Predict the 3D structure of the following.
Amino acid sequence: MTKQQLFEQITQKNSYLCVGLDTDIKKIPSHLLKEKDPIFEFNRQIIDATAQFAVAYKPNIAFYEALGAKGWESLQKTIEYIPEECFTIADAKRGDIGNTSSLYARTFFDKSSSGLDFDSVTVAPYMGSDSVIPFLEFEGKWVILLALTSNDGGDDFQQLLVNSEESEIKNLYQQVILTSQKWADSERMMYVVGATKADKLLKIREIAPEHFLLVPGIGAQGGSLEEVSKYGMNKQCGLLVNSSRAIIYASSGDDFAKVAAQEAQLVQEEMAKYLQMYL
Amino acid sequence: MTKQQLFEQITQKNSYLCVGLDTDIKKIPSHLLKEKDPIFEFNRQIIDATAQFAVAYKPNIAFYEALGAKGWESLQKTIEYIPEECFTIADAKRGDIGNTSSLYARTFFDKSSSGLDFDSVTVAPYMGSDSVIPFLEFEGKWVILLALTSNDGGDDFQQLLVNSEESEIKNLYQQVILTSQKWADSERMMYVVGATKADKLLKIREIAPEHFLLVPGIGAQGGSLEEVSKYGMNKQCGLLVNSSRAIIYASSGDDFAKVAAQEAQLVQEEMAKYLQMYL
């Protein structure tokens, strides 16, 4: 999917919502456990219920591989089921030396090898250029590079001040954004940005004005979505805001899909407002 | 497996060789392709041929997941087949926020969930403490944290000079080693160190004298194994030196297992010499 196609979908649906499919066998409604593939059945119903409000889906790969071969089968069925127009993200945080990253790219992008055909994959930057570039060799596919994450440990290394060749002192996450722009432009690369604070978003938009940012961890409501939208949005929206648990586990009863749709719609309506205000 | 048990195996076998199972369906001898599970059949014969010369096996997870669910089945059979006394490494380079890392830990350590039961997993440090600690919650299991890698892109970020709280300026990889020692000691954590040069190994041994180092990318012969052994060895050996392609693909004919054994033995004999010289 091209950046332009993604933007068109955003304007059509008036939404930049990404639904995170962090599907945990221990958390899905119990009546699904009698199904042959409960994980896929849960995802199928969530996708049916939310596809009109969401522009992207992001299966968190850990949840599938924790179930071994069976989990990979559920993942394969899920990715096949997601409507063509939706952008798909393998949230896998992969990254290794060149020939190994090539195989990870094959895993998520080459259907003839693994059965999977995602639009994008999240990649960890620590091993540098040749750990990322193999993912870019698949035409039309995207790398979403970890830049700034909002978890407790995110500050351990990402906020360290680094002295780069260009002499100006920056935080490591800023250096990651700057260096990686040599590998691909905003048509092929996005950044994971856990920032919900204005100052960080402004800093990132200074050095990556055109890129899409994947923002995880926003709940169904609240000021943080407004803050992200106000300070993070660019002329092509430039935001995919993810919500996982607040949508998919909004109800644990038989009505889980209906309630998920309601939650997704609430977020979409808020997003429609911000698109009008800040685009 | 405890550090002491690993050391005992090293002294018994006179070896600190780790055989990397980077098993590629495109590279294995063609006569194996008629087998029901060619990947497992290749691994089985390699393991039988090399187990007396190797103390560890390291399946590179990318090679298995690139084949989807089928690949995970081959991986499961392989890990079950590796002799009990050998240390097993899931070379997966995982790392994510806390609840997701918990699921990755379950993937590689909890046989009842995924079918896999590795002794250790390689983890990427970029997301910090809570991306690593969940792996340590499995008793008796190890984290092998990426520190310094020798790939082309390794220098992009790992060599950056950082200003940490403790004021002294260090390279990022040194900071990773220092910070991560707050999370676990040398009984539970090892480091991936691609260094083959004396100066880097000496720097690392200054700040991590007791830890095991997993050193990838050493060929069957040559000065580099000597350099690693001379400058990297500590009182409990403290080294696992990996060789993948130079052993498993030493022959592409029917005799692949026999030739792999010969190559593994050559490395083992060189290691026996260094154990006598430097331990």
